[in-house]
């Protein structure tokens, strides 16, 4: 594997994780005897092989290909702070030994993870401003701001003497993102001058027609659910969705409730947002230990565990084993999140436990007025981006086969001449006419935690 090395006229894209699956994103770009890694993430509660039944708590893509030639790795660029993009950095950096480049919020989030591994003083983190351009080895990298479901998501324009790539990262077109600026198409339209050889694009919702809902559209539905509850309100949502947390704090202010956070990932994200100036000064959160002493009608608890994961706050509340907050008949649990494919059974079991306690359960899928918005683009959004950027080649990633096929079809109807689809370990040759060399590299998964 270590003999696969790009020359000065080559431009390669090599996914080790996150292509043909959702999660564990780990991508390599190759040019002029060097590799650039983009993202280094994890997935949770999964098996190492399709035919295995043994579950592991935290899993990453196997980095063996690049660690065998780590002297050729000139840097790791992180597009944003979601665990499926940054969660493996602390575990794998001792094998990578390269500088890490990212913007302020993601850097702060990463530092907290590195501190837990006693790596804070060892890992060189280079903070990059949004919109900046930086040379990393033979790669010239530009950070373009996007909208997603957490602060400071960025796309990358990676320029080389052999060609240029637009790497979307995770994104959506959001005119009302709650935090950060609304989506601005201008920098992406400026790329449509024929200079982009390949667009490596998020496929997560490409098989969904229409447009993705704006984050700001969730306020009305959540407000109505909170306002009409006599007892405690407990909201299960993704801990990284800072915008949703801010929306809930605003709703608590308007409905006379106090907000507390239950779950380490929630607390980490909010503390990161406060440290980087993202969190609004007037959005108060009280010590979660105090919520238990308030009248139920004054409680708005935000809890981890919307996917039914064991040992999370919501699961402990459902089984009367949470050490800070009890829930009971008359309370309302709101799932302000989708059910991720594969988690259906665990969520159903959690809902059953809650209903046995005579707690009212509200699911996002059952609400006429939205209480959840995806952070990823639907079909019309993907089509817009292809028409703006006008790449020569479309490379769908960040999705299972059906999502990537839908992405490729959108690219075709949007005027992109060539679509290259593949899996982890396939080598996408972007220089020249463009082609895929199947199974060029052996890939797999490794367990980071049991």
Automatic annotation (TrEMBL):
Annotated ranges, domain Metallo-beta-lactamase: 23-222
Name of the molecule in the record: Metallo-beta-lactamase family protein
UniProt keyword list: Exonuclease, Hydrolase, Metal-binding, Nuclease, RNA-binding, Zinc
Signal peptide (from-to): none
Pfam family, one: RMMBL
GO molecular function: exonuclease activity; metal ion binding; RNA binding
Tree of life domain: Bacteria
Provenance organism: Reinekea blandensis MED297
InterPro entries reported for this sequence: Metallo-B-lactamas, RibonucZ/Hydroxyglut_hydro, RMMBL, RNase_J_2, RNase_J_b_CASP
């Amino acid at each position: 594997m270590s003999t696969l090395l790009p020359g000065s006229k080559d431009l390669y894209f090599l996914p080790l994780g996150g292509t043909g699956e959702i999660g564990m994103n780990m991508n390599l770009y190759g040019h002029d005897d060097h590799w650039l890694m983009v993202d280094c993430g994890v997935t949770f509660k999964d098996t190492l092989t399709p035919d295995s039944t043994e579950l592991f708590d935290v899993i990453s893509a196997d980095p063996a290909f690049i660690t065998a030639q780590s002297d050729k790795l000139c840097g790791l660029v992180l597009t944003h702070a979601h665990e499926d993009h940054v969660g493996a950095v602390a575990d794998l950096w001792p094998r990578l030994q390269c500088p890490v480049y990212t913007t302020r919020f993601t850097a702060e989030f990463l530092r907290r993870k590195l501190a837990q591994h006693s790596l804070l003083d060892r890992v060189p983190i280079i903070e990059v401003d949004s919109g900046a351009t930086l040379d990393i080895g033979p790669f010239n990298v530009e950070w373009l701001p996007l909208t997603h479901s957490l602060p400071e998501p960025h796309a990358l324009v990676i320029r080389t003497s052999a060609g240029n790539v637009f790497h979307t990262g995770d994104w959506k077109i959001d005119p009302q993102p709650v935090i950060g600026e609304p989506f601005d198409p201008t920098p992406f339209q400026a790329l449509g001058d024929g200079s982009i050889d390949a667009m490596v694009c998020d496929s997560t919702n490409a098989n969904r027609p229409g447009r993705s809902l704006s984050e700001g559209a969730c306020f009305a539905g959540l407000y109505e659910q909170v306002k009409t509850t006599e007892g405690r309100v407990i909201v299960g949502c993704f801990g990284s969705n800072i915008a949703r947390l801010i929306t809930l704090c605003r709703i608590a202010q308007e409905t006379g409730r106090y907000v507390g956070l239950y779950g380490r990932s929630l607390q980490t994200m909010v503390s990161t947002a406060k440290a980087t100036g993202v969190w609004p000064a007037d959005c108060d959160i009280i010590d979660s230990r105090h919520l238990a002493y308030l009248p139920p009608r004054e409680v708005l608890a935000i809890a981890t565990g919307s996917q039914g994961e064991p040992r999370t706050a919501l699961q402990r509340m459902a089984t009367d084993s949470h050490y800070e907050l009890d829930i009971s008949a008359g309370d309302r649990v709101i799932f302000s999140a989708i059910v991720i494919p594969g988690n259906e059974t665990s969520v159903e079991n959690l809902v059953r436990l809650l209903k046995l306690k005579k707690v009212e359960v509200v699911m996002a899928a059952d609400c006429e007025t939205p209480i959840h918005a995806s952070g990823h683009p639907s079909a019309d959004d993907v089509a817009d981006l292809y028409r703006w950027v006008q790449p020569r080649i479309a490379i769908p990633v960040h999705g299972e086969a059906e999502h990537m096929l839908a992405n490729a079809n959108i690219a075709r109807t949007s005027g992109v001449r060539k679509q290259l689809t593949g899996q982890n370990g396939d080598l996408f040759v972007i220089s020249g006419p463009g082609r895929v060399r199947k199974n060029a590299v052996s890939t797999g998964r490794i367990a980071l935690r049991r």
